[in-house]
C-alpha cells in the first residue's frame, strides 16, 4: 500500500527547459539581441561559430548544421546516394524519423531487432540482413548510449557500405574514448528542445570526417548550390536559423556541466531502484557512457504505474509504445507481430522518468520514493 504523501500534489516537469533558460537567461537574451541587431538571420556568423564548437567538442573534422535531426538523417542518406530500390538497415525500436527518411528517398528500411539490455540494434543480427541492395546501416544510439559501433563498422567495412549513426539522443556520450557523432562514416544529431543539447525550435547537424561528403552535404542543405544560382545537386532548404545557432552557442558553454549532472541524476535513480525485482534500470555497457536523453526503466504493469504517478504530479513518457514494423505506415513491408520479439517486448514495458540537469534533489527523492511505493 502506498504511504500517504503531502496533501499538495507536486508539479514536476518531465524536462525542465524553463529552469535551464532561467539559469542562462542573460547570456541567451544577449545572444538573441545580437542577432536581431545585426539582422543576419540566414547563415549568419553564429552558424559557423557553432559548427566550429561542435567540431572541437566531438573531434569530427566537419559539423554541418541543418534544420532538424530528421533533415540531418535525410542529408546523410542523400550524401550516400540512397534512392529507389536501395535498402537501408536500421532498428524498428526508434522514433519514426529514422526509417521515414529512408522511405522518403524511395528506399526500403530493413529492420533488425534490438539487444534486450541496451535497446540498441543487435549487431549479431545485421549480417544476415545484408543484400546486394544494402546501401547503408543506421544504428540508433538510443536514450543517450552509443550503439555497438565497432561491431557495426566491422560489418559495414566487410560489405563496403557506410554507417550513419543516428545520434539524435546521444550528443555528448563517449564510446571507447571517442564522442558520439564521431564514430562512423556519418553521424546525425538533433537540437530539438528536449535533447541533451537543444535549441528553441528545430535544428540538427551532420558530422563526417570525409571531406567529399562534407562538401556535398553543405551544398545539399542549400538547394544543391555550389555557388549562388549554380546547382550541382537536387537539394533542399535545410539550413539552421542563425537565432537557433546563437542559442546553441550559449548552451555549448555549459554542455559539459549539464552532462555531468545528467550522470549524477541517473546514478541516483539507478542506485535506489536497481534492487527492485519488478523494475529494470538502464544498463550501460563497459567503455561507454550515456547522456541519458531519457532515463528509461522497464515495468511490467506499466499502465497502472503511469496512472498512479500521474495522480501525484509525476509525468512520464513512453519511448516508444509501438515498434515501427507494427505501424500502419509500414504495413506494406509485410511485417507482423512476433517478427522482432525483443522490440515488441520492450515496447510494452518501457517507461521514461523525469530527467534534466535541473531536476532538484527534492523532486528526484519524491519521484523515487513514490515509484518504490507503487512497484513494491
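Sequence proposed for the structure above (376 residues):
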Amino acid at each position: 500500500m502506498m504511504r500517504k504523501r503531502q496533501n499538495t500534489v507536486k508539479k514536476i516537469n518531465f524536462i525542465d527547459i524553463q529552469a535551464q533558460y532561467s539559469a542562462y537567461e542573460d547570456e541567451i537574451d544577449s545572444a538573441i539581441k545580437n542577432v536581431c541587431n545585426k539582422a543576419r538571420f540566414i547563415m549568419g556568423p553564429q552558424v559557423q561559430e557553432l559548427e566550429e564548437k561542435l567540431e572541437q567538442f566531438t573531434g569530427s573534422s566537419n559539423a554541418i548544421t541543418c534544420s532538424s535531426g530528421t533533415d540531418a538523417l535525410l542529408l546523410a542518406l542523400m550524401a550516400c546516394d540512397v534512392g529507389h530500390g536501395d535498402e537501408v538497415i536500421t532498428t524498428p525500436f526508434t522514433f519514426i524519423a529514422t526509417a521515414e527518411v529512408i522511405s522518403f528517398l524511395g528506399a526500403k528500411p530493413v529492420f533488425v531487432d534490438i539487444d534486450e539490455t541496451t535497446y540498441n540494434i543487435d549487431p549479431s543480427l545485421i549480417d544476415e540482413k545484408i543484400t546486394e541492395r544494402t546501401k547503408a546501416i543506421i544504428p540508433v544510439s538510443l536514450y543517450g548510449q552509443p550503439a555497438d559501433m565497432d561491431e557495426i563498422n566491422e560489418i559495414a567495412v566487410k560489405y563496403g557500405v557506410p554507417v550513419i549513426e543516428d545520434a539524435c539522443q546521444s550528443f555528448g556520450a563517449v564510446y571507447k574514448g571517442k564522442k558520439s557523432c564521431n564514430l562512423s562514416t556519418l553521424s546525425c544529431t538533433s537540437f530539438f528542445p528536449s535533447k541533451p543539447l537543444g535549441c528553441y525550435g528545430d535544428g540538427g547537424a551532420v558530422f563526417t570526417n570525409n571531406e567529399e561528403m562534407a562538401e556535398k552535404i553543405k551544398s545539399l542543405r542549400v538547394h544543391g548550390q555550389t555557388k549562388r544560382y549554380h546547382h550541382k545537386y537536387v537539394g533542399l532548404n535545410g539550413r539552421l536559423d542563425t537565432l537557433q545557432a546563437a542559442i546553441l552557442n550559449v548552451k555549448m558553454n555549459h554542455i559539459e556541466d549539464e552532462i555531468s549532472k545528467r550522470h549524477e541524476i541517473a546514478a541516483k535513480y539507478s542506485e535506489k531502484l536497481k534492487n527492485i525485482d519488478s523494475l529494470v534500470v538502464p544498463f550501460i555497457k563497459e567503455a561507454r557512457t550515456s547522456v541519458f536523453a531519457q532515463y528509461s526503466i522497464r515495468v511490467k504493469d506499466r499502465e497502472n504505474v503511469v496512472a498512479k504517478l500521474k495522480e501525484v504530479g509525476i509525468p512520464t513518457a513512453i519511448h516508444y509504445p509501438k515498434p515501427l514494423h507494427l505501424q500502419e505506415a509500414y504495413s506494406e513491408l509485410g511485417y507482423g507481430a512476433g517478427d522482432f520479439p525483443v522490440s515488441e517486448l520492450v515496447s510494452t514495458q518501457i517507461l521514461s522518468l523525469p530527467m534534466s540537469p535541473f531536476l532538484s534533489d527534492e523532486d528526484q527523492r519524491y519521484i523515487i520514493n513514490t515509484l518504490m511505493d507503487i512497484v513494491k
